[in-house]
Amino acid sequence: MADGRYAAVVPERTAQRLLAWYGRSGRDLPWRNTRDPYRVWVSEIMLQQTGVDTVIPYYQRFLSAFPTVADLAAAPLERVLELWAGLGYYSRARNLHAAARQVIEEHSGSFPADAGALMALPGVGRSTAGAIMSIAFDRPVPILDGNVRRVLCRLYGIDRDPRRRAVENQLWELAAALTPADRPHDYAQAIMDLGATLCTPRRPLCDPCPLAFCCAARASGRQAELPVRGPKKTVPQVVQVALLLSCRGRYLVCRRPLDGMLGGLWEFPAVTLPDGAEAASAAQRLLQERGLRATLREAGQVKHAYSHFRVEVRLFLGEADDPAWVAEGDQRWVSVEALRDWPLHGAHRKALTVLPPEL
Fold first, then answer.
1. pLDDT in tens for each of the 359 residues of the chain?
2. Are 273 and 239 in contact (CB under 8 A)?
3. Quick count: other Cβ atoms within 10 Å of Cβ 76?
4. What 8-state DSSP symbol labels residue 9?
5. Could you tell me the pTM of the whole model?
6. CB within 8 A of 81, min separation 6: which ones?
7. Alpha-carbon span 236 to 227, nearest angstrom
8. How far apart are CA 301 and CA 347, in angstroms?
9. Whole-angstrom Cα distance, residue 103 to residue 113?
10. Closest C-alpha to 209, from 29, 25, 11
């Protein structure tokens, strides 16, 4: 309960308290036992917009396939996307691949111990560069991911929208002031852990928090109000029609162009449904465009949220005629068993749930 009394934030004391708590309560995560900048970088990119529990198995599989930056750079992008399928925000995978090649070509295979050079790599922003610098190279460089931003807004009682440029600049200054010269690698992980486990977006656990003694939000009872949330953006809604066409126990899938949205991932034949259009007619036209014949029936729908839009996919099942016209490459007939591990993007992976179980 708020009592209106709290100590001023003293950076050295605050860092000491946080590090002591981290020594007792820090999470045991696969990327915590390495200073290899490659592995730190992969974990930081995967953790952008994605929770720890989801990331762990992807991180382990990814490093099993690409144990070094040279292995990643040498791999075809299609293979990288296969291992990323289901993790979402696929531009991260393309940026990882491009950045790995840049490290090989411009830095002789070694990650530069310089924040500016790291930020020149595709997909590496200021906070990610700070995490690599502090965790891998033990340099006192600040970070400001979502967890840290929330901790600082509550700690200092900042009641302005943290997405505004002036407020963000202020947060960077505070983050730099709090980052200690001693053990910056542990401090970076400690403050991220604090936001992930105690100073959570909803119902923060203030009693066990090591910084409760100097938290302005706790003192004023405003933990639930901070950080200030700006107005929600309107998210576009898209409706698609997709064909689940089977033939001899296999389903037709198509690969998206590498240079577009969800580039390089696979999907069932699909088309965006214009406003007012009838789904069954659109499905029939899509079938005819493929040069196939089948009796279609609507089998349900799935919904999925991407980073900038939401999609509803109307699904039509059908048994197709002779598939001989389909060549290997960007269109394939794939068995149900293989589809389970196929690099389908999110909405169309959900479509697997409507496939007949006997197939």
1. 444 456 688 889 999 999 999 999 999 999 998 999 999 999 999 999 899 999 999 999 999 999 999 999 999 998 999 899 888 888 899 999 999 999 999 999 999 999 999 999 999 999 999 999 999 999 999 999 999 999 999 999 999 999 999 999 999 999 999 999 999 999 999 999 999 999 999 999 999 999 999 999 999 999 999 999 888 788 889 999 999 999 888 999 999 887 778 888 899 999 999 988 899 999 999 999 888 889 999 999 999 988 788 999 999 999 987 756 565 678 899 998 899 888 899 899 999 998 886 54
2. yes
3. 10
4. -
5. 0.85
6. 90, 93, 94, 264, 265, 343
7. 26
8. 10
9. 12
10. 25
Task: Specify the length of the chain in residues.
Answer: 359
For the chain, where are the E strands, in sequence order? 237-247, 250-255, 266-267, 270-272, 297-305, 310-319, 331-335
As annotated, the active-site residues are 44
Q: What is the largest CA-CA distance in the chain?
A: 77
Which of 218, 229, 217, 230 lies closest to 158 in space, CA to CA?
Answer: 217
In degrees, to the nearest 5, what angle opens at C-alpha 279 toward C-alphas 266 and 330?
Answer: 20
Question: CA-CA distance, 79 to 72, in Å (whole number)?
Answer: 10
Handedness of CA 98, 103, 109, 111 (dihedral sign): negative
Percent helix, percent strand, percent coil in the chain, to nearest 5? 45, 15, 40
- Dist. CA 162–CA 166, nearest whole Å: 8
Q: DSSP assignment, residue 212?
A: G
Residues 6 or more apart whose Cβ sits within 8 Å of residue 231 = none
